[in-house]
Amino acid sequence: MKIWWLLNIVWLIIFAAGAVFIGVRKVDGAGAVQTPEIKMLSFGILAVVFLFVILFQLMQLAIIHFMDKKRIQ
Question: What would the 3-class secondary structure string for the chain be?
Fold first, then answer.
């Protein structure tokens, strides 16, 4: 269970770093200027990925709890 929490903290740091990177960059890798609309689109894409990760982590948590309860009985 401690590994699960550690991995969640790592995911949180990765997404926070991604959000900061999107927020502060002026030009992307292709040389396109980042307008507020493009930044909001990028934040939205990051949020969708974050939701998928949260969903997967919650499924793992349910499995871990189920296995722990089964092991105790």
Answer: CHHHHHHHHHHHHHHHHHHHHHHHCCECCCCCECCHHHHHHHHHHHHHHHHHHHHHHHHHHHHHHHHHHHHHC
Percent of the chain predicted with pLDDT > 70:
96
Residues 23 and 39: their CA atoms lie apart, in Å, by 7
Q: What is the pLDDT of residues 9-46, one digit of tens each?
A: 999 999 999 999 999 999 988 888 999 999 999 999 99
Hey, what amino acid is at 68? D
The domain locations on the chain are 2-72
